[in-house]
Amino acid sequence: MTGRAVPGPIYVVTDPGAALSVTDQALAAARGGAGAVQLRHKTATDAEFAALARALLAVLPADVRLILNDRVAVATALGPRVGLHIGQGDGDPAVVRARIGPDMVLGLSVEDPAQLRALPPGVVDHIGAGPVRATASKPDHAPPIGFGGLARIVAAAPCPVVAIGGLGPGDAARVRAAGCVGMAVVSAVTRAPDPEAATRALCDDWTQEEAQP
């Protein structure tokens, strides 16, 4: 997938602590219908992370976006065939955009609408809003914002919003009602007995909600 299209609607974030390898997680998510896979591995070196990203690019279908978490240098080296997602502590989004160039999709984590006030228009392609609920997948996460906080971020955001944090089966309706274009999940897929089936069920939930009048 190329261009700056928003990933989703189901966006799976890899979990290096899960039983399946990161590669198998990504492939299961892709087979289940995920529109994007985010490679997140906080303890890998840049060289290890880059090698893993290249391995995923070699096996993921062309219509599944690979997003790199935090690693600006790796994303810059790989170019616009990958995307990048950064957090509030990963630098000025405008500076990051200048580094990665105009063609790479860029996501930004947001926990509060106030974090959007200084965001220049056109720099970020989508917002990752959350955590909606507490989650063990990221122990150092900010306080949960709930679905009300999610809706407030959507209302203030200058670009599409993807929800993240403690989400899983049955949440599509509330995520869509908040105004989001997608939802990102970690353990709901990576720790599921059958990650491919879990991804497919999330995609089906989203599609059914989309079809509601």
From TrEMBL:
GO MF annotation: an example? magnesium ion binding
The residues listed in the UniProt record as binding 2-[(2R,5Z)-2-carboxy-4-methylthiazol-5(2H)-ylidene]ethyl phosphate, with positions renumbered to this chain, are 135-137, 166, 186-187
What chemistry does it catalyse, as a reaction equation? 4-methyl-5-(2-phosphooxyethyl)-thiazole + 4-amino-2-methyl-5-(diphosphooxymethyl)pyrimidine + H(+) = thiamine phosphate + diphosphate; 2-(2-carboxy-4-methylthiazol-5-yl)ethyl phosphate + 4-amino-2-methyl-5-(diphosphooxymethyl)pyrimidine + 2 H(+) = thiamine phosphate + CO2 + diphosphate; 2-[(2R,5Z)-2-carboxy-4-methylthiazol-5(2H)-ylidene]ethyl phosphate + 4-amino-2-methyl-5-(diphosphooxymethyl)pyrimidine + 2 H(+) = thiamine phosphate + CO2 + diphosphate
Q: Where does 4-amino-2-methyl-5-(diphosphooxymethyl)pyrimidine bind?
A: 38-42, 69, 109, 138
Q: Which SUPFAM superfamilies match?
A: Thiamin phosphate synthase
Secretion signal, residue range per the UniProt entry: none
**GO biological process: any one?**
thiamine diphosphate biosynthetic process
Q: Which domain of life is it from?
A: Bacteria
NCBIfam families per UniProt: thiE
The protein's name is Thiamine-phosphate synthase
Q: Which organism's genome codes for this protein?
A: Rhodobaculum claviforme
Q: Which gene encodes it?
A: thiE
